[in-house]
């Protein structure tokens, strides 16, 4: 049995959403029509 180890999560740079300005982890931004948006803004434009 392997002992449990804590592995720190990688910290990613926050970038402001180009629509609402909310700081968003860079890896969670979505590109829509050439703009980098947070997921809620991207979803509101798509649907």
Itemize the secondary structure elements and their pairings.
Layout: E1 14-16, E2 23-25, E3 30-32, E4 35-37, H1 39-46
Antiparallel strand pairs: 1-2, 3-4
Brief rundown of the structure:
The protein is of the alpha+beta class.
Q: Per DSSP, what share of the residues sits in E-state strands of 2 or more residues? A: 25-35%
Oligomer: single chain
Uncertain parts: none
CATH topology type: Wheat Germ Agglutinin (Isolectin 2), domain 1
What topology, given as strand order, has the largest sheet? 1-2
Calculate the terminal CA-CA distance, rounded to whole Å: 48 Å
Based on DSSP secondary structure assignment, what is the total number of beta strands? Answer: 4
Broad structural category: alpha+beta
The assigned CATH architecture is 2-Layer Sandwich
Helix content: 10-25%
- Which H/E pattern describes the elements? EEEEH
Q: Supply the CATH class.
A: Alpha Beta
Taking the sheet with the most strands, its summary is: 2 strands, antiparallel
What Rg is obtained from the alpha carbons, in whole angstroms? Answer: 15 Å
Number of domains: 1
User: What does the overall shape look like?
Assistant: elongated
Number of helices: 1
On the 0-100 scale, what is the average pLDDT? 90
Word description of this protein:
This protein has 47 residues and is α+β, with helices and mostly antiparallel strands. The chain has a single domain, classed as Wheat Germ Agglutinin (Isolectin 2), domain 1. Helix content is 17%, strand content 26%. The protein has one helix and four strands. The strands form two sheets. The chain has a two-stranded antiparallel ribbon. The protein has a two-stranded antiparallel sheet with strand order 3-4. The longest helix is centred in the C-terminal third of the chain and has 8 residues, at 39-46. The relative contact order is 0.21.
């Amino acid at each position: 049995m392997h002992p449990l180890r804590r592995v720190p999560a990688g910290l990613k740079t926050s970038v402001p959403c180009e629509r609402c300005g909310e700081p968003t982890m860079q890896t969670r931004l979505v590109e829509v029509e050439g703009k980098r948006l947070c997921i809620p803004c991207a979803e509101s434009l798509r649907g």
